[in-house]
């Protein structure tokens, strides 16, 4: 086995114990945020990030005991107290295009409740009067005139408008709606014990609790969507544009299921979530690549793959970018519209390029083509520049290192490359050799013509970069060579003066 193959295997295998440990140690996060789903008003959801799935939950009131109950409506009778009245606060009304909603249940007042009312319940009927279309003040008047005992028909509203700021639990105790921070303890299911625990302060401190067996309800977080993270993609941008959402993002599963737009309260919190999700996606991808590579020969191993957004050449205003899946495998860069799953998928790439005949470049701020950040370009063997965008700077660095590694491995494997050229109308060959340098069968001062000039230039660049890399002790000796600093050829290497004599064939 050659030294080059040994280095490649060291890179691809790495320290498997460390990789597996990192795979199992991936971030988990939980938090309460707002979700904008289509044209609906934003509503509170809970996000839970695990190593391989993002769970989006919404609050709902469910029946947990008694006879099966198929209606979402509940009926409860409460009695007015001398001090404190019914002990309820309400918000909303028909003027806000929603029913009146219970926004607070007093902690101190005593009332004869059956344990069926929850913060977030919409009041549908009062003593049989349908108040769904009543304005706020009209509902208040009906309640004032309802007598000492009132029967309410309610239904929990999962998606109340954001301006209501319905209180969520913090350490299992509810705060008034005007003091709500909009956050929740990630370990607390709001109102989990409301129906049967008399010490719970999320509802009224009742003078007597129902003792007879019957329906029991609980307010819980229930799953709304499950987003598998393998090959999922993140986006802060309005689809197809360079418009970045403020403190918001969405996650799209490989099958197209979208999380909806998740809104965070601050830039830092949004960035934390983006980085955590991106880290888990990356770890899943690497773990999957490791398994796939067992079926491929050494010279066809996958170095890296993932989602990017490609800038359209003939873009229109609402479609400037299109999601693409790039994969660096063996000697080629593949571009897909969806991740390759089967061996046959690899033969159906939209385009493929030879890695040592293209040029990778991270775009500086003054080179960006629009408002998108974290962009890189790939100049093809025909001289065409293709622009790509990623979500985070860490993704940009991963792509840079992956291109460097793929180029080095392939140059080291082939050792030399010969291109046809024309010298004084005679067909000749220019050989770029990893060990010997440039070899041509004529004087070096002669001008050479190439029909594929950019491919030659990029190949020369690739060989120079690989030569420098193989002399870097950190690159050669480190078992984690992929993560070791590799000299960036785009910024440190200058082609020899002879390259200036190369020109297009007429």
UniProtKB/TrEMBL annotation:
GO CC, one annotated term: cytoskeleton
Keyword DNA damage recorded: no
SUPFAM superfamilies reported in the protein's UniProt record: PDZ domain-like, PH domain-like
Cytoplasm recorded as keyword: yes
A molecular function GO annotation: structural molecule activity
Ranges for region Disordered: 1-22
Compositional bias of kind Basic residues: 1-11
Protein keywords: Actin-binding, Cytoplasm, Cytoskeleton, Nucleus
Record-annotated PH domain positions: 301-408
All copies of domain PDZ, residue ranges: 75-158
Subcellular location: Cytoplasm, Cytoskeleton; Nucleus
Main location: cytoplasm
Functional description taken from the UniProt entry: Adapter protein that binds to and probably organizes the subcellular localization of a variety of proteins. May link various receptors to the actin cytoskeleton and the dystrophin glycoprotein complex. May participate in regulating the subcellular location of diacylglycerol kinase-zeta to ensure that diacylglycerol is rapidly inactivated following receptor activation.
Family (UniProt): Belongs to the syntrophin family.
Protein name from the UniProt record: Gamma-1-syntrophin
Species the sequence originates in: Labeo rohita
